[in-house]
């Protein structure tokens, strides 16, 4: 099937806008490709360093130019629950490579921070920029030019976008992404949220809060709510960078190990030394990117990807705008209800039919481009499957179920939860912003109330504890953009604003910062661009200014006379506290170079 006309029209628009830069990018990919093993260009001294610790048989193979060598880029550490399983993956990959007649080496490691650990802490101001550091770190590993393909071990928030940028920068190499899977279900997310609210109100103590959090985040694997990490896994599969059906298989299971071995063998099968050469820079095109955006909307995915997808696409010479994302949202129905958009977690989503069911429904509705290239071959239809463990211990696949296992979690296209996707662009005299509507009840999507203007989430929480916020208001938290302090997630606002909304007040948030991928039930206009530090109008707001946030019509307005708003001076708070401590001094250059949120917020220019 071909995609619907409206999906095709948006794709064509992106293709035409991107054409000059995309053609230059593809030319570079073509010139970087080699008809022999990439290491064949290395001198004897270069090569001797590259295989110094290998076995004699591996040295003999690597000394020629016909045996493929697989580079492993790993983000393993054993503090991130999602990344701890990667400890054993290199061994599995090397064994699978030998079975397939190839060799695998760990090309390099990249940093992987946990946003759950750094929420509300100074380290969160490094989070967004860690994406670019990850891309650069992976590039250093691959720059040795020893490899004919690469596999990327990553799951969480900035890690997968950073790895994708690196993979596309080395676009002449085939790239396969290997996930670790979600942890098993623990304390339900809505129960965890209730305990957080009770703690914020002083009704339970720290011991009860820690017990609830520990029951929720309790073992190896990705956190089970549908935030940025699990949105990453959805994207990698729907864009054809995972093997079919591999995104949401729990770690430490025979099927997970079988999928890992299979991914390694597939990466070796698509090098230029074989007959199915699939360089990732050619494989990922405008259609692949549109498929990713459609998947994001259909599942109510993370707001962070309105930044990351733009930066990822730029790495392939593709220019995507917030307007493209917004228009695709209008065309895409919401098919999944996973916390914070519902009560289920990603394990429930997978049990209801998961990615195979979702992809099949979107394909049949004409909402995805079926005629894309993937690491599995031609077309996206082979991803409309369910992966199982075969009798021989390898991966077996069967068609995705025709019916959802739970239509309260995963709906067919004909019974969508809402006709449009979960994200929307807001515009008005404060600039442009993103709002996640899928978790906000329709009656909460329009708020008009006086502004409470603050320059940190800590200041808002202090005002709450002082009893100063028991009323209708719009919290304006500014100087939280990329240039101001690295654009941290302001996750600590979620609980307080949720409490006030539950008390019957009309509340909303307007900020040039980010919220977590778990952005929830309070209407939040985030990523406001231009940011306050760059002269954005959000920096001109005063306490008491009437703000209108209308997620139905896409309006974000300060109801202040235009001439008055334009002539007000920009507030200039002291931001020196953001410049030092927890490594922030090392990122001064990143803050200076950071682009706007609607342009990917990257600290390095990609064209």
From TrEMBL:
Positions annotated to bind [4Fe-4S] cluster: 156, 223
Pathway this chain belongs to: Carbohydrate metabolism; Entner-Doudoroff pathway
Iron recorded as keyword: yes
Record-annotated Dihydroxy-acid/6-phosphogluconate dehydratase N-terminal domain positions: 68-380
InterPro entries the UniProt entry points to: 6-phosphgluc_deHydtase, Dihydro-acid_dehy_C, DiOHA_6PGluconate_deHydtase_CS, ILV_EDD_C, ILV_EDD_N, IlvD/EDD_N
Catalytic activity: 6-phospho-D-gluconate = 2-dehydro-3-deoxy-6-phospho-D-gluconate + H2O
Signal peptide annotation: none
Assigned keywords, A-Z: 4Fe-4S, Carbohydrate metabolism, Gluconate utilization, Iron, Iron-sulfur, Lyase, Metal-binding
GO molecular function terms noted in the UniProt entry: phosphogluconate dehydratase activity
Keyword Ligase: no
Enzyme class: lyase
Cofactor(s) this protein cannot do without: [4Fe-4S] cluster
Domain annotation Dihydroxy-acid/6-phosphogluconate dehydratase C-terminal: ranges: 408-601
Cofactor note: Binds 1 [4Fe-4S] cluster.
Record-listed E.C. numbers: 4.2.1.12
Role description: Catalyzes the dehydration of 6-phospho-D-gluconate to 2-dehydro-3-deoxy-6-phospho-D-gluconate.
Family classification: Belongs to the IlvD/Edd family.
Protein name: Phosphogluconate dehydratase
The organism of origin for this protein: Mesorhizobium marinum
